[in-house]
Design a protein that fits this description.
The structure is a homodimer. By secondary structure, the first copy, chain A, is of the alpha+beta class. Helices cover about 25% and strands about 20% of the residues of chain A. The first copy, chain A, has six helices and 13 strands. Chain A has a five-stranded mixed β-sheet with strand order 3-2-7-8-9, with no helix packed on it. A four-stranded mixed β-sheet of chain A has the order 4-1-13-10, with no helix packed on it. In chain A, strands 5-6 form a two-stranded antiparallel sheet. The longest helix of chain A has 21 residues, at about 25-45. Chains A and B meet through α1, α2, α3, α4 and α5 of A and α1, α2, α3, α4 and α5 of B.
Amino acid sequence: MRDFDEHNITQAVIDRFAATPDPRLKRVMTSLVSHLHDFIRDIEPSFAEWQAAVGYLTRTGQMCDDKRQEFILLSDTLGASMLVDAINHRMPAGATETTVLGPFFIDGAAAFANGADLAKGVEGETLFVEATVMSAAGAPLAGATVDVWQSDAEGFYDVQRPERDEHALRGRLRTDAAGKIWFRTIQPAAYPIPYDGPVGDMLRATNRHPWRPAHVHFMIAAAGYETLVTHVFVAGDEYLDSDAVFGVKNSLVTEFTRHQSGTLPDGAPIATPWRHLSYQFGLKPSADKGAKHD
Amino acid sequence: MRDFDEHNITQAVIDRFAATPDPRLKRVMTSLVSHLHDFIRDIEPSFAEWQAAVGYLTRTGQMCDDKRQEFILLSDTLGASMLVDAINHRMPAGATETTVLGPFFIDGAAAFANGADLAKGVEGETLFVEATVMSAAGAPLAGATVDVWQSDAEGFYDVQRPERDEHALRGRLRTDAAGKIWFRTIQPAAYPIPYDGPVGDMLRATNRHPWRPAHVHFMIAAAGYETLVTHVFVAGDEYLDSDAVFGVKNSLVTEFTRHQSGTLPDGAPIATPWRHLSYQFGLKPSADKGAKHD
């Protein structure tokens, strides 16, 4: 076929994918071509605009390295990541809601015993975290793996501190026989997503701010359950209603209760004000076929 | 707003672009979010699939350098470039049809006088090109700038030959008082688009071949006319009906007539077989508002 015009080219391109061996890939490419062409027909880009789009995507790819994933940021800020999340988590009652993984997770963080201090010397207001991991049906899950990561008091993750040569404010714990973990850390702060790249250019050009409300990330894995990726957000944060990556759900917002000195839940005395986070997670059985196409 | 789900998140993200100062950018972002989310809802990607898509786009950006533009290749092979082209060139009678720029154009190629040999020693069957540049209404255009670029006899452009330290098979000519240019070169060959990157991965996974039928690129600029970007294709090429970038139009396919030795059109004797390309281009007046949003 030749002589493609703006009306017949879409079907011609879809036909070119007819011999794709993997039916799922064929379905995805067909849908991609259809939606991409509809987008182009809708906005009728000039050549200069299309070149600008190509240049933008190129810069986004070239901004990525082992500590920075700009395409995830772009997906996050366009609400695409949370939409993929929603589609993959049609949740049963009792299961904790999910949210985006974000770009700061590191696989294989150091293991800590319950009661440990994850701050590793990073300064901030002491936060004592207690959490229980349950099945959605309400049974405590012993031996679950809990990955935790969070920003410091200035809103930066350890990987954003080039002067640091070891990780901090992240680690892996394991639930005890009652399904509990507990640890010390510091109160996290609201922070802007990295905005010195193409995603920052987009936010500036559209009068959007780059801020995320303060939160602690959790990823919880237990045999027989879907791995839970979520955050717990600090109630009262000014960015809860305008999170740059659309990640806030009301069920994930909770008080990080402030106390004046006294005694921590593990019995240790503390002379300064401190915060207390107590949260209960519910895991969805992996028998539930919620995830797509895995 | 919080508690986004797969049904309400699209409008929430569109609302976040409400304060975009530039109305065109606001229109583009609104359409992008709407079509991107529709695509996601249609295919319901798993997390692993979405991560694979992010990784694919990242590799595509990182494949680009000053001699390689993988995102243009991706746009070309998905038919997007030809769709943008079609939207920007709703042509009047007498005007030459347009096609993709492709990734091998170089701005500011060396100037040549009419009659010059653009092959600069590259081996191949001699091709003598004569072309006339007219207005769509049929008047010859003197002093038009004609950029020409093409592959060698093995299907490679000069920029794909790392051992070459100067350009070949490309250059800029100027039409004489009768609107004519003429030059010597060699017969171009069909060639595969570069397939050692993410675009090649996509073509392999979908059983598509990477070949483009043999052609010579032309970009023609004259004051008062829209710049014409097009190719002239070699009649009889086996890939005319399956061009990997959907760029073929019947009006751009012509005989590169083969002759046995004799005399070239400029009077020079030639002892070997040679080809003759004669083509007439028609330029669209720039007063015609065909291009979008420039």
